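[[Sequence with tokens]]
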Amino acid sequence: MPRLGPAAVLVVVLVAVGAWPSLDGSQSSAAATTVVTQDCVANFLRATQEAYTSARSSSLEDAYSLVSDAVNDFVTDCIQGTVAGGTFRPLRLLVPASTASAGDTLSQFYQEASGFQVVSELAPDDAFVEELMVTERTLPTAYDGWCMYASDLLPVLENTGLSQPIDSFLEAASEQADWLDLLPAVRDLALTYGGQRWAMPVNGNGGGMYLRRDLFEKAGLGVPTTWDDLLIAANIINGTDIDGDGHGDYSFCLRKYSCVATSQYVIGQVLSSITQTHGTQSHWLFDPDSMEHFAGTAAMERALVLMQALLPYSYQEDCEEALDAAFVAGKCAITISSTSLFKTVQQSAIRLLVEYAALPGSSLVWDRDSRSLQRCTRATCPHATLRTVYSGERELVNAAPYFGFAGFICMVNRQQPAAFQQSVFDGMSYVASKQVSGLLFRLVSYMEPFRTSHFDTSAEGLALWAAVGYNTTAVAHFLDATYAMATSPNFAVDLSITGSTRYVASMRAAMRHVEAMDPPAEIASQLRADFDAILATSGPIDRVRSVFRAALGIAPPPPPPQPQPQPPQPLP
């Protein structure tokens, strides 16, 4: 752990006694002068000196605790005061286990800026909501807040009453939070529910397709615009010696479905381009009006066929090998990955050979009225664009960019005193601020965009990328392509519905059967049975529909008209 030097000890002391400038540049001040005895000052200095001595052979956390104790004693014993919130202590956050390293980085960044120590407790990703449910029943004040994948927002709100809406915090910190600068899909769908704002983002999520431009040009191929084109390209390039070792390589890098807890997102990336044609609110897995799901349809079978067709051309690393590293090392010519790969590529020897492009789309889509697959028309695919596909034909191609979840968000525990609620909000809004999040996006490989300002391609904006070693032409193309996907009117969002974790588990199980090359019709049939059972045990269908529509930002329908009183009828 990092050691605590004299300057760090001073920061902790200043924060605790209220002399540390707040992040907006203001300085707290005492309401009245208090006379403090010489002994109190001496004891306080002795305690902080002991903390510094201890820190030289101990950890930051131990020294921080010693200083915090000294400050609390000073406030209560010497000035007969109280610390807002009852006592000064580290902030306690619950985070998914898979994000421990990233959480530590953000926590340290905030601590260095403010002096507040953040202690993260880990919960298994697939049991995160359950951990909060147990916390509410047993010790509601165990955490000051929690940071989680945005797809868990609805399950947390549905299953616990711990979360504090942040509307009042946002109004008081409007400049730093800059709510309207957040991407619309993040702001309106990932963070808002039931007309209230519940969380701040601290990381985004995005991605696209990465191609070895040199190999595509050599093969006479353009950028694939459909999944069928991608399969043709994979077939043509497969077997090319990409890494120069004298042996043929695979054309596609595909993470083993059985290796990844989020492998079900691959279903969404393919299926969304087939089933979601009428905008974000039409959704790609459930119809928000009829609540019909697409799990057992010909559309799902089509998606599964495409996914299996990629497998013979795919370099599938073992579960411990990094997929992005395999692409950079020349193990393949094509991959689909997050925006973090762009930054990795730009620091590599192949940076001038890689093309970044939008996710493929589909010219064959699911028509919900006829319940059949049909070619795109302007009526069935209002958001489609006319593209030249590999066959040379001009076709309408439907794209519904899907990245699995809308990033990483933090929430406030309403059970904690107001002072701790404010401190948690200050921390998450600081990391989410334009200046800080923009800096982290450029400097930290796994930080991804969630603000409109993150896509600034002005001369000033690109100069910030150039200052840290990036090629501005490549950056401008990357930002423009990612922004076009993230702001598409047909952008596909994650599944926020009652029982969402059970649907996700079903799709995850299906991916193992895809990898095993089981018949797509059988996989789709099992998905249909799973989905039917989950929907049937999720409560009244009208309630499920209402929650799902609210999560999509669809206003609830007006109440039915009340029957008019009938005039009294004359007696016979």
Notes: The mean pLDDT is 85. The longest strand covers residues 91-96. The first helix runs from residue 6 to 17.
